[in-house]
Amino acid sequence: MLSPNTFKAARALALFAFMALIWLVLGMVYVERFYAPFDWLVPWLMPWKGLKTIPLEAGLDQRLVIMQDLLRASNRVAQYALAGMIVSFAALSMYLSVLYQQKQRRVRENLFLALKNREIARRNEFIRYISATISHEFKNNLGRIKRRLDLLTGLPADSRDRISDNFEKLFADIEIFKKISDEREAGLVEFNNVDLRAMLNDLAAHYSDLAEVSVNERAFIPLIYAASPLLRTVFENVLDNAVKYKKPEQPRARVHVTCALDQDAGRRYVTVSLRDEGIGMNEQQADTCFYRGRGVGENWGQGLYFAKYVVGLHAGRIRVGMEHTALGQGLEIIIHLPYVEEALDV
Asked: How far is CA 70 from CA 47, 75, 80, in A?
């Protein structure tokens, strides 16, 4: 089976060969001289040559009339041939111009990706710096808390299991940050194919005791190319905020998750919307919630700042959906992740 690049090259070669043949025929029509094996085209392209014959008994005036008709027909066909050559040349020039623009766009995209990779490297240096200073003490303190919780005998088995799962997740996150701080583990943020639906369903089950998380089962949710641990942390931050800022009368937070494929400026995106029914926020608060230390309420602006950072590492965008965000109505967080069709073959 031909690869896409081989198929494009073969198609371009076939187009050029066809255009060269057309120009050759039009050129022979223009000069009225057909060479083998194209001489069989004469009755089709210049039928007047066979119809206009000069009788032997024709007088001078009749011969001049016939020759004038032949000359007009010849000029007319030559003009048509020249016009056809000009139009076909213009069409080919436009086609080559479009191909050149597409190539230039790919060059710009590659340059953008190269700049993005540099930015990712710079940000990774920043992550290594902060994670190296906090991971050791953070893990030690969590270990002490876990050992003290293990001493409690009155906890229900289900609650104990969930707390243990949370601690295991915390320890796993700390290991991630420890690897980030070690340059020998530069491959820690590895991008792979991620089953987004499986991740969202797993999160819905994990938060079932704290929130009613509904994932649209009918929506098409494709595989994406991402760093699974970091992307999962983004969704967890959003769900944690939904639990923390639910309405007082709600026994559990309610979060609706939908996914869709969108296109923006020629690029395809996987759009994930997480909409809760909590206390919400106003427009001014929505403008500052992704900035560290400038959020609203206790700890606002920390988790969402990290979420924005991680989504940026994936060359995506995160924003507040103002259509479903208002005080007393709830909050909608919309995440756009690039959809890479080639990721299925990476």
From this structure: 11, 9, 15
Q: Report how far residue 194's alpha carbon sits from residue 209's, in angstroms, rounded to the nearest whole number.
A: 25
Residues 6+ apart with CB under 8 A from 155: 149, 163
pLDDT of the residue at 332: 93
Please determine, for residue 144, whether its predicted confidence score (pLDDT) is greater than 70: no
pLDDT in tens, 183-210: 444 444 677 888 888 999 999 998 888 8
Residue 334 and residue 317: Cα distance in Å, rounded?
Answer: 8
Distance in angstroms (rounded) separating the CA atoms of residues 313 and 22:
51
**CB 11, CB 3: distance < 8 Å:** no
State the pTM of this model.
0.50
Tokens of 190: 């590895």
Q: What amino acid occupies position 51?
A: L
DSSP-derived pairing of the beta strands 211-215 and 253-264: parallel
Residue-level pLDDT at 191? 78
1 pLDDT higher than 50: no
Tokens of 245: 């800022």
Q: Tokens 């902060």 appear where?
A: 130
Cα 42 from Cα 48, distance rounded (Å): 10
Closest CA to 333 of 263, 219, 256: 256
User: Domains of the chain, with CATH numbers?
Assistant: 4-109 (no CATH), 190-346 (3.30.565.10)
Q: Which residue has the tokens 């959906």?
A: 321
